[in-house]
Structure formats: C-alpha cells, structure tokens
Amino acid sequence: AHQWRGLLAEYREHLPFSDTDTLLTLGEGGTPLVHSPSLSAQVGAEVHIKVEGMNPTGSFKDRGMVSAMSRALSDGAKSVVCASTGNTSASAAAYATRAGLTCAVLLPKGKIAAGKLAQAVVHGARLIQVDGNFDDCLEIARKLDAAFPVELVNSVNPYRLQGQKTAAFEVCDALEDAPDIHILPVGNAGNISAYWMGYQEYRDKGISTRTPAMWGFQAEGAAPFVAGRPIPNPETIATAIRIGAPASWALASAARDDSGGLIDAVSDEQILDAQAILAGEVGIFVEPASAAGVAGLLQQAERGAVPRGARIAITVTGNGLKDIDTALSRADLTPTVIPVDIDAAAEAMGL
Ligand code: F0G
User: By C-alpha distance, which of 99, 59, 89, 40 is closest to 309?
Assistant: First the structure.
C-alpha cells in the first residue's frame, strides 16, 4: 500500500530543491478535502473543506516549515528564528527538532493560545515573549536574521511559500481541476499568496485548466487589507491573525486582484459563530482564526454574492485543540453527575 511520503517528496518536481539537498518530513501534507453537504446547502454552492489541522503540528504552517527547514539544514544553518502568533512557532519547534537545529521563537506576550505555547515548550524551542504584538516580533526577527548567523523561517523566507503552494496542488488533484473560488483566512498574508502561486503553476503547466478567484477574510479589528494600510494596534479574539502589518502585502494584493477575488473583514462574533457551525454542524473542530474563511463565505452568501452552484474550496488552517480556552468559554460546562448506576445514566440520557 502507498504511504504518503511528505509533501517535498510527493511534489518534488514542482519544488526548488536539488538532488544534494536533505529533504525532511514529519508526514505533512496530503490533508483531506472534505465535502460539506450542510454548508453547500446553506450557501447554494458546492463546498469542500481543506482540513489543514490534520498536519503533524496541527496547522498548515508545516507545509512551509518542512520546506524552509530543509533549505536551512541543506545550507548548513545551525539555528533558526521566527516571530509567531503561535502556529509558526509550534511548527518551527517541531521541524527544528527533526533537523537537529536550535530554534528560538518570538511571541507577543499574553496573546498565544495555550496549546501552541505547549508545543513550542515540548519541542524544546527557546521561548521569548515580547512585550509587543506580532508585527513588533517580526521586525526583531528580521533584524536578527540580518545581523546574526541565524536563519529566519517566517514566510518572508521564500521557501515557506514554496512549501505552502502544495496545498493548492492537492485541491486540484482532489477535484481534478481548480475550483471556482478558494477561500481562506488572511493574517500575515503568506498563505493566500502561496495558494495563488500554486494555482497559477498548475494552470501554466497544463495540469489544471484554470485558476480560482481568491477570497481572503481578515478579522474586523485586524484588517489592514480592508483599510488599505497597516493597522497600528490590531485586536481580535482570533489571536492567530492578530496582525496589523502583513509581510506579504504586495503578493496578497496581487493574488486578490489578478484572480478577480476579494479580501474582506468579518467580526469576532461571526468568527465564533462559524467555529460553532464547523464543530456542531459539519463535525470539524478548528481554532477561531481558521473559521474566518467560513464566516466570510456565510457573509458573502447573505449578501447574495456566492454564485449559484459554484465549486468552492475553503481552507480551515488550524486544529481546534490548540485553543480550547476560547472554545470552552462559549460552552455550557455544567456537567451531569450521577451515581454508578445504569438507570441514573439512562435517565440522564433521556432514554
Ligand atoms: N490561520 C491560522 C490558524 C494561522 O496561524 C495563521 C497565521 C493564519 C490563518 C493566517 O495565515 O499569515 O499566511 O495569512 N499564523 C502565523 C503564525 C502568523 O505565527 O502562526 P497567513
């Protein structure tokens, strides 16, 4: 039986590695594309969900990280650094372990979901909390990269986007062509740029016949693309995308414009509602930021802007288990306590 070999091996002919490079893997990529009858019915289209929380560290970051870390290792780097809202650092910590490199992560103090912090800790990264936001962390990381012998593995490293573009390949492979629309959350804006690169490459090579419109969604309090300029103090419950000065500004703007797409904003309430719909109606538990795309799809549907019958792929970027505090704060946690007794159990179940 065929075992998935990791995305660098599976998509090698589309990636800029040579025969002498060391290609790492923790089994990333090859994530499921799940058709959702309920979302499809709700918006009058054909909705497929790309479940990126199935990656080794629970987010899409593993696609870019396996690529950037393989480059760093092959180039003889000893140590890597990144700024992060949590998922990039979790992934960097895991892949640095695999590569045998030391890893330092710069995190905005107090704004990282507990599961993500735990990941950086257990994988042995040096955890540095900055009394500022993600944008401040990234500025420091870029300056460290310029001044010290340390490799930057944020998405400004072009190998990150190279790895992440493979998600677009997988969607095309699964659907046997590109969808009409691809939807995803936007924070630092690397992922929308990477998907657009992947879709264009598959079309240019004749593997697919067309490219989708790229629809990106930001959190209302952290929506620089909607404002048309950086936001100095971004705020949202979706801490993963609490970013005011996206690094891939030009690439993401081109993805939006050249694809005939859009980048819009959704409120925190819409994000949490979409997270609840994904968990309670679709059966997929995602972290809040990951639900921004679904929130955006529902918003567009309410506005009558979703073309009837369109084939839509929507990326949910990270696993819900990373941020259980936010999820539990919305749930009714009053448990039913019973004695060790079958009749009491049956009664509690309403049988
Ligand atoms: N969804 C999740 C779960 C994320 O962690 C991120 C980014 C995004 C969406 C946005 O993707 O930045 O490519 O536009 N997280 C980064 C991090 C910033 O540090 O983990 P993007």
Answer: 40
d(CA 332, ligand 1 centre) in Å: 29
- Is ipTM beyond 0.90? yes
- Pocket of ligand 1 contains residue 187 by CB under 6 Å: yes
The predicted-structure confidence for 297-340, as pLDDT tens digits, reads as follows 999 999 999 999 999 999 999 999 999 999 998 878 888 999 99
Q: Decide: helix, strand or coil at residue 105.
A: strand
Question: Which residues, in sequence order, are bridge partners of residue 314?
Answer: 49, 183
Indicate the domain borders of the chain: 7-59+160-330, 61-157
Q: Which atom of ligand 1 is nearest to the CA of 186?
A: 14
Domain 7-59+160-330: which CATH class? Answer: alpha beta
Domain 61-157 -> CATH class: alpha beta
Atom of ligand 1 nearest to the CA of 287: 3
Q: What does pTM read for this prediction?
A: 0.97
Helix, strand, coil: what percent of the chain each, to 5?
A: 50, 15, 35
CA–centroid distance, 156 to ligand 1, in Å, is: 13
Mutate which of 160, 165, 191 for ligand 1? The one with the most ligand atoms within 8 Å of its CB, which is 191
Q: How far is the CA of 289 from the centre of ligand 1 (A)?
A: 8
- Give per-residue pLDDT as tens, 118-138: 999 999 999 999 999 999 999
